[in-house]
Design goal:
The complex is a heterotrimer of chains A (565), B (162) and C (573). Chain A has 565 residues and is α/β, with parallel strands linked by helices. Chain A has 22 helices and 14 strands. In chain A, a hairpin with a 5-residue loop joins strand 12 and strand 13. Helix content of chain B is 42%, strand content 11%. Chain B starts with 9 loop residues before the first helix and ends with a helix. Chain C folds into three domains: 74 residues, Roll (Ubiquitin-like (UB roll)), CATH 3.10.20.740; 115 residues, 2-Layer Sandwich (Alpha-Beta Plaits); 353 residues, 3-Layer(aba) Sandwich (Rossmann fold), CATH 3.40.50. In chain C, 35% of the residues lie in helices and 13% in strands. A five-stranded mixed sheet of chain C has the order 2-1-5-3-4, with helices on both faces. A four-stranded parallel sheet of chain C has the order 11-10-13-14, sandwiched between helices. Chain C has a four-stranded mixed sheet with strand order 12-17-16-15, sandwiched between helices. In chain C, helix 9 packs across helix 11. Classes of the chains: A alpha/beta (565), B alpha+beta (162), C alpha/beta (573). Chains in contact: A-B, A-C, B-C. The interface between A and C is medium-sized, with 32 and 34 residues.
């Protein structure tokens, strides 16, 4: 890729070919079927549906007039397999191979939607055929997931068609490195990994840090149980991450990037690997990109199963082939990152925001969200909720909107009890705080945290002592063992909560848990340890009565805990 | 001397192992990648493999072993032909992971972390596989995701894996 | 300079310093556990937490760099409460066998528990359970007592570059051990014992052989004799409670006699002998075209290190046994004959600042008298305990002289205990033997001090002799790699396993740190200066030994009794 014109040419050609996906009927093609290829739909056997559809198309002699694309995750995992048929943008759900024929012969060939496969809002008589009209999607705002309905994640030209790599072109040809950093700073973008540090400031520190070479690292070690946002981005739109990293490379003067992906995500790794190869092929990675004298390349590093590697200093160790044990900061990665060199480290979702910010400008981005938290946030909605899956909403959306409007509320008429955000670092938020607008600060104030975006809904049947125990078990298992408060302290917390849940709780156990929790928070070495007590503290804060009931009455109201006789 | 997990002959295996090591000779930074690929080749990471990797990359055996035992993906013992990984993510936990594990134990007769005597299955618990919408979920052999598993479906699922 | 406030006192300190450094200036003592200056700075134990204004959490003083305008409080009630709980947690995973622990009253964890007034452990959960490794003749590893401070890893990996230990597993199950929980005896561990020197608790300790010695002393048939290594006389004081740098030569001799040893001899004697053998070997190699550079062979950890990691360079090693083993071989031959004692009845005890010597005396090459040449080795620490057991108050013992003839020595033998000492002793002799002239000054200052690699060229007659001196195996590695690369044009290299030389050996009193090493070195050279004779070739007992028994350096008997060979071992075998 030597010039913006060259990119524009590819874009225009490809966009023409993809007009059908914008709802404009095509003279040569009857339809594009966008079949969700996210992990959920794949496990719901969407590929069998694709095979059946292909068979039906061949049988009817129109195989060359219909494209079937396996996209990234569309979001509504519990309805899978789902598909969107363009140009009508008709949304189908719960597809089975036997439904393929109807879609081909009725919808694609005759133009009649298959009513029984359409989405119906709870309680509604009429179906909602168009994807954009469905509540679940209508209330979302897709920036990071901008391409997930639209492109084939294995096609770089699809990505380019939707303005892909235009931001990189702009950054290289029209902007100065300082200008890029300034733009990111102005956008107000904060790290989506959980802590919420200003990305632009991080870039600035690294750009000014002494030492070369510098590195750009993508943290794709999405380890929070109940979080799969980054996976969806990597699987559905890998080029957005590559482009974001390359832009940063220009801004800070780095020529090498690393993407660290957890081994549990084989499809994401495959897609990413393919995307990197294609980007090299198109000259969007490699030497002299856009003729601007800028070189940049990316290597994938695969994790090997350690949650703590999501912590930035541990991740850096892991990239270097070592035990992923965090080290004290400072020095921060901006000064001493990979191989001890200045490094910018952001997570997948953060990187995917960058191209849009550069292309549409900081002001556009900063207009979305709240005063201190800009842009959108993706959440992975799961647990006792009707619509599970991935949603992207503007910062400031309330928990109630997400749980009850987008998520469709609690199934089987059960009562909402709490929503857990932030994974093992976060907390359980009770009904009284459902109207909290989501941003970094307000979630912190109510004892939880943004985290990377897992959101697990719990109903009246969920025992909060049991949930706290679950998270402690997780942390004890995943503690690296380097610092004493986390290594021994979380173990002791687990042992106490375990005896409470066994009916062997003692007077004073709650106070002991609080004392331990406070000390671990203030003394542990890394973010994992410092936030490990949050699930316990937040459940004690909001559901202390459940603890007391377990200890004093030897009773678990939810019938989850098994007491020793 | 070297033990070999398959029947291909140790020399052949050593050759293949060296092919994995070669691009990283003298580069300690490649340790995790080499271990990952070596485990793919051999099924686990016995001592002779770790020794060869240590010498190839120029790190101490202690360092290699420290890394192997830090990461959950690496195994020091042979595993079954099929790996049943039950997701222990929050969503799965909330939606019946414990029952799923109990049912699997009842059917195959081993606890998490163990392998059946016929080497057919290894049962393990893994961190969130990101199929939260399908809880409770299990991933078989690292690729086939089975979601919303009811206990009575288990025999049918396992049948697919001889 | 950075200006900050600690406990309301202003302090200015160089940029890059830590809060801990700064606190020392204002006299604020911050407790530490994993921290070990210059060796282990990892911020893992979280005992040294302090309050820093504006920080979200407490801050570990040992690793946190100072910053301009920083406001630190080291002893607020909340800081103390947090430290105390962290300590309580560490203790909750500790066996609490203090009364039966070899480190009783010399344990950093115990001291902290006392200082914090820990009176109750409120946690009764699981404790780390891993088997004890007592396979090595030198060291015992007890992971139950380990607090995972990782000082041993740091010293073994960064200082000694042996890498026998690493962190394994993770979380609560973390274990510091060799790979596959291999036995220390069966792997590359060189038994130098530096790990035991830095361990804050009793998780790695010397193997205690005191009872063997008591048993021998109790046996009327045994003729029990003892040799004391050069460094022990500047260490024993510390082992019994005196200030570092105290010289306890005469008191040690007196004390050993009171313990019931039949003869009290001195390794300094065979140190002098080593100079004659090794000096002649060097001259022979130089004049007859032998393998150069020649490297000293007194330090058994170093020998094992070379056998494992540089087996290709074994020809560079002097074939001389260490002074301990030369002594052992002569005691059961020359001395036995001279004294008319049946060598089978001789029980030969050696007092060393070293754990590797325990291993060395058991090597199969070390039976040249027809018996195990040295029967048992005690470290300085064990001798200190023996004195305590016997109720000997060293400070009030009269100073006594070593027995003749194996107790007669020179200052040259004495300085073997410090890095550079062997080289200096060799130069004193080689110079005079080769040139036939008397040295104006016997002090080769260039050889002395703690610098990791010291180099010098000394004109000996027509020959500019190029020498190198290293202490700490990591420094040895630097020079060895040069030899391997063909870039080393030295004639003679002195290698000592431990930082500072034997005065900082793995069997030294605890604590041993840079400051204390320097004091012991000073004491060593003071002792050298006090000696009437300061050159090995002037030792009359050595001259007599040659006349009566050995005939000449490198002669037939020497070859049989005083020289040895080495075994290539490799790694991961």
């Amino acid at each position: 890729m030597k010039s913006l014109d060259e990119l524009a040419k590819i874009r225009e050609n490809r966009r023409e070919a993809l007009k059908i996906r914008e709802g404009i009927p095509s003279a040569t093609e009857k339809a594009h079927v966008m079949m969700c290829g996210g992990a959920g739909c794949i496990s719901s056997k969407c590929t069998d549906v694709v095979d059946a559809m292909k068979e039906s198309l061949s049988k009817n002699g129109i195989a060359d007039q219909v494209q079937i694309i396996l996209t990234g995750c569309m979001g509504p995992c519990d309805m899978g397999p789902v598909a969107i048929v363009y140009p009508d943008a008709t949304f189908y759900r719960r597809l089975k191979p036997k439904d393929a024929e109807a879609i081909v012969e009725e919808h694609i060939m005759k133009g009649n939607m298959v009513q029984r496969l359409l989405y119906r809002s709870p309680g509604a008589k009429e179906p909602t055929p168009k994807v954009d009209d469905i509540d679940l999607f209508a209330k979302q705002k897709k920036i990071v997931l901008r391409n997930n309905f639209y492109i084939d994640p294995t096609s770089i030209e699809d990505y380019i068609a939707n303005n892909g790599y235009a931001a990189l072109g702009k950054a290289l040809v029209e902007m100065k490195p300082e200008g890029i950093i300034e733009e990111v700073k102005k956008s107000g973008l904060r790290g989506r990994g959980g802590a919420g540090f200003s990305s632009g400031m991080k870039w600035g520190f690294t750009a000014n840090a002494k030492g070369t070479p510098k590195y750009v690292v993508c943290n794709g070690d999405e380890g929070d149980p109940g979080a799969f946002m980054d996976r969806s981005v990597l699987e559905g739109d890998p080029h957005s991450v590559i482009e974001g990293m390359a832009i940063c490379g220009r801004a800070i003067g780095a020529e090498q990037g690393y993407i660290y992906v957890r081994a549990e995500y084989p499809l994401a790794i495959e897609r990413l690997d393919y995307a990197i190869k294609k980007a090299r092929e198109y000259g969007l990675l490699g030497n002299d990109i856009f003729g601007a004298g800028f070189n940049f390349d990316i290597e994938i590093r695969i994790g090997a199963g350690a949650f703590v590697c999501g912590e930035e200093t541990a991740l850096l160790k892991s990239i270097e082939g070592k035990r992923g044990e965090p080290r004290p900061r400072p020095p921060f990665p901006a000064n001493a990152g990979v191989w001890g060199k200045p490094t910018v480290l952001n997570n997948v979702e953060t990187w995917a925001n960058i191209p849009e910010i550069i292309l549409k400008g900081a002001d556009w981005y900063a207009a979305i969200g709240t005063e201190k938290s800009k842009g959108t946030k993706i959440f992975a909605l799961a647990g006792r909720i009707n619509n599970t899956g991935i949603v992207e909403v503007p910062m400031g959306t309330t928990l109630r909107e997400i749980v009850f409007e987008i998520g469709g509320g609690i199934p089987r008429k059960k009562q909402f009890k709490a929503v857990q955000t932030g994974g093992p670092s976060g907390g359980c938020i009770p009904a009284e705080h459902l109207d909290t607008p989501i941003d970094y600060e307000s979630l912190g104030e109510i004892g939880s945290m943004m985290g990377s975006g897992g959101m697990i809904v719990m109903d009246e049947d969920t025992c909060m002592v049991d949930i706290a125990k679950f998270f402690l078990d997780f942390v004890v298992d995943e503690s690296c063992g380097k610092c004493s408060p986390c290594r021994i302290g979380t173990k002791r917390m687990y042992e106490i909560i375990d005896r409470i849940s066994n009916g062997e709780g003692r007077e004073g156990d709650i106070e002991l848990l609080i004392e331990l929790a406070n000390t671990i928070e203030s003394t542990a070495l890394c973010g994992l340890g410092q936030t490990a007590p949050n699930p316990v503290l937040s459940t004690i804060r909001y559901f202390r009565n459940e603890y007391e009931e377990h200890i004093k009455d030897k009773k678990c109201a939810c019938n989850v805990c098994e007491f020793k006789e | 001397m070297a033990e070999c997990a398959c029947n291909c002959g140790e020399d052949e295996l050593t050759k293949q192992l060296d092919k994995i090591i070669d691009p990283y000779r003298g580069q300690p930074g490649g340790l995790i990648q080499v271990l990952t690929k070596s485990q793919e080749l051999i099924g686990y990471l016995p001592k002779w493999v770790q020794v060869r990797i240590a010498e190839g990359l120029g790190v101490s055996l202690q360092e290699v072993y420290g890394v192997v035992t830090f990461y959950a993906f690496f195994s020091l013992i042979p595993r079954g032909r099929h790996k049943l990984s039950v997701c222990a993510g929050t969503a799965c936990y909330v939606k019946g992971m414990k029952t799923l594990i109990k049912s699997l134990r009842d059917v195959i007769g081993v606890k998490p972390g163990q392998t059946t005597p016929d080497s057919r299955f290894t049962l393990e618990i893994v961190r969130c596989i990101g199929a939260c919408g399908l809880a409770p979920a299990m991933i078989v052999d690292g690729k086939d995701v089975h979601g919303r598993i009811e206990p009575e479906q288990i025999p049918e699922i396992l049948e697919q894996y001889a | 300079m950075i200006n900050l406030t600690i406990d309301n006192q202003k302090v200015a300190i160089e940029e890059g310093s830590t809060i801990l450094d700064a606190a020392q200036i204002v006299g604020a003592k911050i407790p530490t556990l994993c921290y070990l200056k210059e060796i282990n700075v990892i911020g893992a134990c979280r005992i040294c937490m302090v309050e820093v204004q504006g920080a979200r959490t407490f801050v570990p003083a040992c690793v946190a760099p100072v910053a301009e305008g920083m406001v630190v409080r080291t002893n607020t009630p909340s800081v103390i409460k947090a430290r105390k709980l962290v300590l309580e947690l560490i203790l909750s995973d500790h066996p609490m066998e203090c009364l039966t622990c070899v480190r009783n009253q010399n344990c950093e964890l115990q001291t902290l528990a006392e200082e914090f007034g820990i009176s109750e452990i409120r946690f009764d959960g699981a404790k780390t359970e891993y088997p004890i490794d007592d396979s090595s003749p030198a060291l015992i590893r007890d992971p139950r007592k380990c607090v995972l401070c990782r000082r041993c890893i740091s010293v073994c990996t960064n200082v000694q570059t042996v890498q026998a230990l690493a962190a394994e597993n993770r979380g609560f199950d973390t274990l510091i051990a060799p790979a596959f929980n291999d036995k220390l005896a069966d792997m590359e561990c060189v038994q130098c014992g530096q790990c035991s020197l830095v361990c804050p608790t009793g998780a790695i300790v010397e193997k205690d052989d005191v009872d063997k010695v008591w048993a021998a002393l109790a046996d009327p048939k045994k003729h029990v004799l003892v040799q004391t290594a050069p460094a022990t006389r500047v260490q024993l004081g510390e082992a019994v409670g005196a200030e570092p740098g105290s010289i306890f030569t005469g008191q040690m001799v007196a004390g050993l006699r009171r313990l019931g040893f039949d003869k009290v001899f001195d390794t300094d004697f065979t140190a002098d002998l080593t100079i004659l053998e090794e000096g002649n070997e060097l001259l022979q190699r130089v004049t007859q075209g032998g393998t150069l550079p020649m490297i000293t062979s007194c330090s058994p950890g170093w020998i094992k290190f070379c056998e494992h990691f540089y087996p290709d360079l074994l020809d560079h090693l002097s074939t001389c046994k260490s002074p301990q083993q030369m002594f052992g071989a002569l005691a059961k031959t020359y001395y036995a004959k001279k004294e008319g004692v049946d060598p089978a009845d001789i029980y030969s005890v050696s007092i060393m600042p070293c754990t590797a010597k325990k291993y060395e005396c058991q090597r199969p090459e070390m039976f040249s008298s027809g018996y195990q040449d040295v029967d048992v080795v005690l470290t300085s620490r064990e001798l200190g305990r023996m004195f305590k057991q016997a109720g000997l108050d060293c400070s009030n013992l009269p100073e006594e002289e070593y027995d003749a003839p194996l107790g007669i020595s020179t200052g040259a033998g004495e300085i073997f205990g410090a890095s550079g000492g062997v080289m200096e002793a060799a130069l004193r002799t080689v110079y005079e033997v080769v040139t036939g002239q008397t040295l104006e000054s016997v002090d080769f200052e260039v050889c002395r001090g703690l610098t990791g690699v010291k180099e010098a060229t000394v004109q000996v007659g027509d020959l500019p002799v190029k020498v190198a001196i290293t202490n700490g195996l990591g420094n040895a590695r630097k020079v060895l790699d040069k030899i391997r690369a063909g870039e080393a044009d030295y004639h003679f290299i002195e290698v000592m396993t431990c930082p500072g030389g034997c005065i900082g050996g793995g069997g030294s009193p605890i604590p041993t740190n840079t400051n204390i090493r320097l004091k012991r070195i000073d004491a060593t050279y003071t002792e050298d200066e006090r000696m009437v004779l300061r050159k090995s070739h002037e030792n009359p007992a050595v001259t007599a030994l040659y006349e009566e028994f050995l005939e000449k350096p490198l002669g037939h008997k020497s070859h049989k009794l005083l020289h040895t060979h080495y075994t290539p071992r490799g790694v991961n075998k």
